[in-house]
Amino acid sequence: MKPIQWPNGFFIEQLQKNHNRTAFHSGVDMVDEWLKKRAHQAQKKRLSITRVLLKEPDTIAGYYTLAMGQVNFDELPREMVRKLPGTLLPIVTLAWLGLDKRFQSQGLGKRLLAQALADCHHTGQMMPFVAVLLDCATVYAKTFYQRYDFEELPGHPMTLMLSWKLLDRMMSG
After folding, report:
1. Fewer CB within 10 Å, N- or C-terminus of the chain?
2. What is the pTM of this model?
3. Topology (CATH level 3) of domain 10-172
């Protein structure tokens, strides 16, 4: 997969303490609160990694947070796990993805998701996992992710997944 192309003046980097998080407003309170109050602490504790999309000089246009996790074998689709051991299985969680209202409807959300999935794929080359999982904060978010082949986790309508197999095909094709 080729690197994500950002418009002029935009770049992505890991969240730093000095980034101005207070001006970020996505329109979804819990998405904003995570970035403003918890993302840096979770990163310091090595629980997750947050990467921010910056618009020069220091405006956070968007962000995403990734974490490693596990899921019970019986929570995944049967066709996906039929040849896997009946234990806890490794996953990557796309814990948060948000785009400031000032930058919505410009194609940046799609690019942020592509960058997050590229990071997941890169991780999967060194640390195996069976799927990327995420919990949708809104029905709008669910619709957004489903456009990119995320499927509902059986029995959990607001939890979506993308199998490693499909992610690998997306990144290799």
Report:
1. C
2. 0.92
3. Aminopeptidase (3.40.630)
